[in-house]
Amino acid sequence: MLTIGELASYAGVTVRAVRHYHAEGLLPEPERDHSGYRRYDAGAVVELIKIRTLAEAGVPLARVRKLLQADEEEFAAAVADIDKRLRAEIRERQRHRKRIAQLAAGDNLALPPEVVKFLDRLRSVGVDERIVQVERDGWIPLAAHSPERVPEWMARKREQIADSQLIDFYLTLGQALHRPDDPRLVELADKLAAYITQMAEEQGEDYIDDADIEPPFVKLMDTLAFDAAPPARRLIELLKKRGWTGWTKLERVDPTQGTAGKRQ
Asked: From 105's CA, which of 15, 69, 170, 181 has a CA 20 to 30 Å away?
């Protein structure tokens, strides 16, 4: 016969756990012997190991109680179901581990190849790495959410960065990233607004932004950009006073709406 301490030791739990299982009605509490101690037999060790194993597998104690009362066939079926769930959780955690490793491993594993090529192109023409990282961080959730649309979006991006004038905008913004009041942002907003307006007139306003990105992702990507490069927010504020708004999604606006004071 075993003391509660010996029982706990053999089953690999604490004495406190044994008492908790008593309180939950999972493990019968034996009567005290003539010395005032509770003594447990080998069967209690087996039951306690079952309880511990099921509990560690994430089975709620209420269900553990029912399983301990089940017949052999029902218990075996329940264990098979628990094993199936655990294997599914393991596969899911393995996927999470892979994605975490991808995030830590750099662009090549975190993003589709065509996005990586786009980022490398930005670097090759001298775009500030902070802007490249803003682009990268925006593409990670977007590519994860809508991987089937990445080729379509990247075709548009490749077309855009073939324009030397747009590359100049990237380079100027990179130079102005050090402070949100950099006067070059005003000049950039003027040039960018003129460029966008020209494109809208020549190609139509649908050409300006045909990505059709869902509003929640637009907000997410804008937030990522503004948090990583605060001057980008200032640029968009200046651009709005010139008739356009949006970092991820460009839209025409009335510059007289919601503005007080003169154009900067």
From this structure: 170
The hierarchical CATH code for the domain 4-99 is 1.10.1660.10
Distance, in Å, from the CA atom of 133 to the CA atom of 122, rounded to the nearest integer, reads: 10
Query: Which residues of the chain form beta strands (DSSP E)?
Result: 244-245, 251-252
DSSP for residue 30: P
CB of 248 within 8 A of CB of 213?
yes
Query: How does DSSP assign 129-165, residue by residue?
Result: HHHHHHHHHHHHHHHHH-GGGHHHHHHHHHHHHT-HH
Q: For residues 73, 79, 80 and 85, what is the CA-based torsion angle, rounded to 10 degrees?
A: 150
DSSP conformation class of 255: T
Cβ contacts of 212 within 8 Å, gap of 6 or more? none
Q: What is the pLDDT of residues 30-45, one digit of tens each?
A: 888 888 888 999 899 9
| Element at 232 (helix H, strand E) | helix 230-240
- Alpha-carbon span 99 to 110, nearest angstrom: 7
Buried b (16+ CB within 10 A) or exposed e, 110-131: bbbeebbebbebbeeeebbeeb
Q: Which tens digit of pLDDT belongs to each residue from 70-107?
A: 888 888 888 899 999 889 999 998 888 776 765 555 56
| Rounded-to-integer distance, Cα 112 and Cα 93, Å | 22
What long-range pairs does 106-111 form, CB within 8 A, spacing at least 24? 107/136, 110/136, 110/140, 111/136, 111/139, 111/140, 111/143
Give the residue extent of every domain in the chain: 4-99, 107-252
